[in-house]
């Protein structure tokens, strides 16, 4: 079995950049952490790596990407969650920087999930696994 690279790709930045570049996400806050002043009622997609696995023989990183998607209403958050999912699911077969996306698999979501940190939040959460060939 081959050893993992000394550093995995910054998949959070990679996904944030992919989402920000898509016209469907224009005007939406997309980040790896909530911006200053965030209260959960703004249109936002927060991107987090929740784990994943390194497949050494194939030289593939399989990160689990979680979207926390917020909106001013439950309906708006749901629509935005579907838009973000569509963008990431469409990366299959594409080169993203030094990485090739060989597969994209939705693991969960979108599902409604109350947010106890932001009282007025309308939040959907979904998890998508990428298969990134790391070069």
Structural overview:
By secondary structure, the protein is α+β, with helices and mostly antiparallel strands. It has two helices and six strands, in the order H-E-E-E-H-E-E-E. It has helices at residues 11-21, 74-89, and strands spanning 29-31, 44-55, 60-71, 95-96, 99-112, 122-134. The chain has a six-stranded mixed beta sheet with strand order 1-2-3-6-5-4. The radius of gyration is 15 Å and the shape is elongated. It starts with 10 loop residues before the first helix and ends with a strand. The mean pLDDT is 92.
Written as H for each helix and E for each strand, in order along the chain, the element string is HEEEHEEE
Strand arrangement across the biggest beta sheet:
1-2-3-6-5-4
Task: Tell me roughly what share of residues is in helical segments.
Answer: 10-25%
* Percent strand: 35-45%
Q: State the end-to-end CA separation.
A: 17 Å
Structure annotation, total helices? 2
Counted beta strands: 6
In round numbers, the mean pLDDT is: 92
- The residue ranges in which pLDDT falls below 50 over 5 or more consecutive positions are none
Work out the radius of gyration.
15 Å
Biggest sheet record: 6 strands, mixed
Overall geometry comes to: elongated
Structural class: alpha+beta
């Amino acid at each position: 079995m081959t050893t993992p690279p000394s550093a995995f790709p910054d998949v959070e930045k990679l996904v944030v950049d992919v989402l920000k570049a898509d016209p469907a996400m224009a005007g939406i806050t997309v980040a790896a952490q909530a911006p200053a002043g965030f209260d959960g009622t703004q249109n936002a997609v927060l991107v987090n790596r929740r784990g994943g696995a390194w497949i050494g023989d194939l030289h593939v990183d399989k990160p689990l990407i979680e979207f926390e998607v917020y909106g001013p209403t439950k309906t708006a958050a749901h629509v935005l969650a579907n838009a973000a999912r569509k963008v990431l699911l469409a990366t299959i077969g594409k080169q993203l920087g030094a990485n090739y996306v060989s597969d994209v698999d939705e693991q969960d979501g979108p599902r409604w999930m109350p947010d106890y940190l932001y009282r007025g939040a309308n939040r959907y959460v979904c998890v998508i696994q990428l298969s990134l060939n790391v070069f």
